[in-house]
Amino acid sequence: MLEHKFTALGGDVALTDGHVIAGYASLFGAVDQGGDIVERGAYAASLKRLAAKGGAVKMLWQHDPAQPIGIWDEVTEDDRGLRVKGRLLTDVAKGREAAALIEAGAIDGLSIGYRTLKASKDAQGRRLLTELDLWEVSLVTFPMLPEARVAAKGDTPEHTALRDVADAFRSAARIFAKG
Fold it and tell me: Which intervals hold domain Prohead serine protease (predicted)?
């Protein structure tokens, strides 16, 4: 059964040159809204199998297999999570739309499509995902893991974290000003 795991883009995925995106599609050790935790190394075997077959993780729009919108040039694990870098195909209508929506801030989520191969439960009953068969990484509207987000051009994860804190303070100030 194909499952999906969502990640908000905002700070960890950057759109540059109008079509290049890079960031994290999954973060290790983070509890998502479904109560799952992806463990470090969960994608390693899947990425190795794909590379051996000459295959690639697909870039889709909203998990729709009929709507590929780009190419993931790099999909790797590091200490933090599943890092992706790719290109939106702006010759494709949905690719152009995706680029415009990301730049406008209307789309800020990534989601992985995968099959669970190995998992266990922790003491709190959360699912610990230790081996996943990764199929695709989609740009989506509603993310499940808020920690990974799409950034403005040139933003680093550190800049985005500071921007998010500043946005929270501005929102709070607006609420208090109305009261």
Answer: 17-160
